[in-house]
Amino acid sequence: MRRSLFQYIIRLFPAEVTHNIRLAMLRFAGYLPFGKWGLKQTLAPKDVSLEREVMGIHFRNPIGIAAGFDSNGDYLAELSASGFGFVEIGSVTPRPQPGTPRPRIHRLRKLNSLINNSGAPNRGLEYVMHNVRRRNKYTRNLVIGCNIGKLTTTPQKNIVKEYLRVFRNMYQYVDFFVVNLSCNTASKRYVPRSREEILSLIEPMFEFRRGQLDYRPILVKISPDMSHEELDMVVDILIETPLDGIEAVSGSTELATKDKGAMCGQLLTERALKVVRYVAERSGNNYPIIGSGGMMTPEDVARMFEAGASLVALSSGVRENGLKLLRAAARKIVNNNA
Ligand SMILES: Cc1cc2nc3c(=O)[nH]c(=O)nc-3n(C[C@H](O)[C@H](O)[C@H](O)COP(=O)(O)O)c2cc1C
Predict the structure, then answer these.
(1) Is there a contact between 266 and 237 (Cβ–Cβ < 8 Å)?
(2) Structural fold of domain 5-337
């Protein structure tokens, strides 16, 4: 995808500053009279053939925003006006978490990739709840997913309680949940990888959900560094339990060997596609998969759907190439389906 002059200029700043400028511009555009209308006209895909029904939820299109982009749900109205099919907020933790000291996102300019060592900064459950509780005319029809993460400081014995606390409090305000099983880059000590550990996190959620009137799908987000045996184990959990789907993948710590953090962007693309293809095949193409990882161009997004994803979540692609990636990717999918 060719970058405009503006995209070149904005990438002269450090990666986190680039992202914050982009968000500030989005906010400014949203404030202008007819601003949200303008965003919709210039950025949002319009073709009705993009509509999807996944996990019992209606999506106006299958391309959304991944966790870490709008962690606190501060830009939901603007992202909705820009046309994203869904926004995954989070990772949300029970209490605010400042994350790792800056600079914590390292740009590999020539390789079109980012190394994320941000440590899931977010303003905590109460703040995020306040944001998603007040849906307005712009966000009423937006599909919102809540990614649940772990506080860096939480001792292992309290993790289950903390995940459940976020889940229960957010239950009535969002449309689906993603349990982050991948590495919080600042706390490599705990990554739940055994069947027992994963079940201990999600089974209390299934139990809580059984007592509710509304059904909220639960997915787990997996690391691209899992072995085939670990992927098989997650797929078995998907088939054998009420788990609704898998999000694959988060950043790769294995690919970022020399640096602290997780590799995102172009260097992750092939591995993300491989994991999604493997999970889709192992699960007989019968379960929802949110594909994420290295979705930098419309062609990457099209390949992710071909690999077996039902939905695609963008992250580094929008951070580095801008919001127009959504419309370009949507156009590619429509053309491929024509
Ligand atoms: C700066 C940054 C922060 C992120 N924060 C989170 C997070 O809080 N929780 C999470 O599950 N994933 C987080 N991610 C991972 C993304 O959601 C996504 O899975 C990953 O970046 C791979 O996609 P990409 O290659 O398109 O960026 C973050 C990624 C970046 C670049």
Answers:
(1) no
(2) TIM Barrel (3.20.20)
